[in-house]
Amino acid sequence: xxxxxxxxxxxxxxxxxxxxxxxxxxxxxxxxxxxxxxxxxxxxxxxxxxxxxxxxxxxxxxxxxxxxxxxxxxxxxxxxxxxxxxxxxxxxxxxxxxxxxxxxxxxxxxxxxxxxxxxxxxxxxxxxxxxxxxxxxxxxxxxxxxxxxxxxxxxxxxxxxxxxxxxxxxxxxxxxxxxxxxxxxxxxxxxxxxxxxxxxxxxxxxxxxxxxxxxxxxxxxxxxxxxxxxxxxxxxxxxxxxxxxxxxxxxxxxxxxxxxxxxxxxxxxxxxxxxxxxxxxxxxxxxxxxxxxxxxxxxxxxxxxxxxxxxxxxxxxxx
Length: 319
Prior knowledge:
Transferase(Phosphotransferase), domain 1, three-stranded antiparallel beta sheet, Kinase-like_dom_sf, 25% helix, 19% strand, 2 domains, alpha+beta, single chain, Protein kinase domain-containing protein
């Protein structure tokens, strides 16, 4: 179910829930290090977007859950900040449609992807910029009770040495069950993953799953990452703590909590749960009895429209 290359018109909603349509020329899909299908596209006005959709090689129900996760957290990020104050380290969603046979999410264009050989191309000063930018991204997520669940080089895009963290298909909210970790999600999960990513950036070596770095392998990181590899997530420093160790300042606080959107956010989560096999929560897990204060979630779209011409390539496979 790759997106057809060429002209198409997608209809859905913007992050505030308003009906919109986008006339696009979709380009060839790209490898994005993600479980979702990803393709760049050009709008009729010449602007660029990234189209995220369901991969054809994964059961639709599972892939739909991934896309729901991404739409949920991306709209939460977007509506928590003014257009001028949107964190540069996080992706900006442009529009979405989730309650249809052909769901999608549109994002502002991604930056160039990081690669495993990144360390050899960065000066020490640039590595520190990368570390600060990565921890700033995680601090913004923690402030909105979001746990990314997949922090690694494939989820990092770069502008110089500055990070944009993408690929939110496995993201959940703090306190929810995380399939990626097999337990309740905690911001410390992302802090640990960021520590492993920085170790890879500094040494060029990716550690096997479950292994923690030897301090001698990257002595420049010893003081910065003290406590990051603690066994319990709650015992690890926060991303904000790590920013302060770098003297990289604080983050601008989100200004969300528009009461007018609260009902729409609630309806989105209800519709999302209703699509799951038992109508309770992701992978059969009941939603937590308590959770973070409600913030931006997409308003509930109207009932699905009649099927329009398919815009997926039935012969290709997701990259």
